[in-house]
Amino acid sequence: MSIAANAALAEPWKDLWNGDPSITEKIIAEQFVAHAAPMTGIGPDSVRGREALKGWISGIRAILPDLAFDYDVGPIANEDYMVVRWKARGTYRGGWPGTPPEAVGRAITFTGTDTLRVVGGQFTEYWANADSLLFYQELGIREVPPMG
């Protein structure tokens, strides 16, 4: 794909994370794989397939229903990859392990970087790097849950 075509995928990627799962089949390849360290320290370090990605996104949106992503940097693209630096904002609804009850209703902001491999106009592989410490601090978590 061209550099411009890969860069153009940044907006639909943001739309997906901002709550529009209808875009999934257009921009996510069937063999999609996401790599990310679990923020709780428990669970798999990869997500495979379109439905698993939609499940991951809906799980995050369950605790932050008004979650909104904006880009601070990028898109940065070449013939094979697209990279963005993002900032996310949302209001905590509850349900994150170790979060104090007074955090419910708190507005939080955290950051991260997404690196995505593009093949044939769709994302095939994703490396997520979210600032977990900032996320925990914003929620008022004082003790990181034990690794499982």
Helices, strands, pairings?
Layout: H1 3-8, H2 10-17, H3 24-27, E1 28-35, E2 46-48, H4 50-63, E3 68-77, E4 81-91, E5 107-119, E6 122-130, H5 132-139
Parallel strand pairs: 1-6
Antiparallel strand pairs: 1-2, 3-4, 4-5, 5-6
> How far apart are the termini?
41 Å
Helix content: 25-40%
Sheet with the most strands? Answer: 6 strands, mixed
CATH class: Alpha Beta
Oligomer: single chain
Number of strands: 6
Q: Could you spell the SSE succession in H and E letters?
A: HHHEEHEEEEH
Shape, per Cα inertia axes:
elongated
How much is the radius of gyration in Å? Answer: 15 Å
Domain count: 1
CATH topology: Nuclear Transport Factor 2, Chain: A
- The residue ranges in which pLDDT falls below 50 over 5 or more consecutive positions are none
Classification by helices and strands? alpha+beta
Quick check: average pLDDT? 90
List keywords for this structure.
single chain, 148 residues, alpha+beta, Nuclear Transport Factor 2, Chain: A
Molecular structure report:
The protein is α+β, with helices and mostly antiparallel strands and 148 residues long. The protein has one domain: Nuclear Transport Factor 2, Chain: A, CATH 3.10.450. Helix content is 27%, strand content 36%. It contains 5 helices and 6 strands. The protein has helices at 3-8, 10-17, 24-27, 50-63, 132-139; strands at residues 28-35, 46-48, 68-77, 81-91, 107-119, 122-130. Strands 2-1-6-5-4-3 form a 6-stranded mixed sheet. A hairpin with a 2-residue loop joins strand 5 (107-119) and strand 6 (122-130).
